[in-house]
Amino acid sequence: MQKILVSGGAGFIGSHTVLELLSAGYKVIVFDNLSNSNRESLERVQKLSGRTIEFHKIDLLDKESLGKLFRDQRFDAVIHFAGLKAVGESVEKPLLYYQNNVAGTLNLCECMIEAGLKQLVFSSSATVYGDPESSPIPEENPLKAVNPYGATKLIIENILRDLYQSDPEWKIALLRYFNPVGAHESGEIGEDPNGIPNNLMPFVTQVAVGQREKLRVFGNDYPTKDGTGVRDYIHVKDLAKGHLKALEKISGEKGLHVYNLGTGSGSSVIEVINAFEKATGLKIPYEITERRPGDAATCFADVSKAKRELGWSTEKDLYDMCRDAWNWQQKNPDGYPH
Hints:
Layout: E1 3-7, H1 12-23, E2 27-32, H2 39-49, E3 54-57, H3 63-72, E4 77-80, H4 87-92, H5 94-115, E5 119-125, H6 148-166, E6 171-177, E7 179-181, H7 200-208, E8 215-218, E9 230-231, E10 233-235, H8 236-252, E11 255-261, E12 267-268, H9 269-280, E13 286-289, E14 298-299, H10 304-310, H11 318-331
Parallel strand pairs: 1-2, 1-4, 2-3, 4-5, 5-6, 6-11, 7-10, 8-13, 9-14
Antiparallel strand pairs: 9-12
Helix pairs in contact: 1-2, 1-8, 3-5, 5-6, 7-11, 9-11
């Protein structure tokens, strides 16, 4: 049985991936500093899977504790989710983001090298494309981050590329996510943002559950079908399955592999609101406000490479995403118990 170490495994995408790994028969060890996640997510994953998860509360910047974890056990691969991820906060606190995301990943890589472990799946982001000139965006698209969060992902990608160049024994997958939404269909695990959400779907569900009065739609004068921004929303369960496919790929093949994980099509903000209303029978009040600086009009993935090389494609549509996100929010109006 392969033993997988998951950094940041208590978070939104991490917890769903841990559940998929357990369901597929992997043994999973999670470490997380719980700064933007909740231990309860893993308790629920254990219940859903009927399997146990070994958990360690460790910060990526605590290299001593991290090193001890690698010395105490042997792992077959690492899936690396841990990192700060709010674009707005990264603009306000760039040094925090570079320190945590970049220095933390260096610590992880150094511990892996000391342990002789060279299999890594890295949680990157479509933010590495910056404001792309056209969509769908292929993996070969020029890379240009437009905020410190995106810059940390791009720097880490470059570090991992250089690491592979220096030692071709490495097996690395860089997964560039588009916009993960939804929740597990049980409603037991889902997205639990700290404070004001940075992403559209938790905002919509918080309006629906009565926590917020109305949704703010940033700009309706973009060159899109209805003037609102178009994004590639992907169900978190489909995204989690993409990690298992990437893990299978690198377990059999050396190299550095880059994949977009999205649906390959875009939905506008208004389309998301309409789909949510259809899936739930609720009305979502919204107001149009100014555009946010740096927001692209349209951004969706070319996913043909992941389909071709990983045999992976999404199974869930926007309706499923809305239904599952609402199911989670209804059952957990305040997120996980804090």
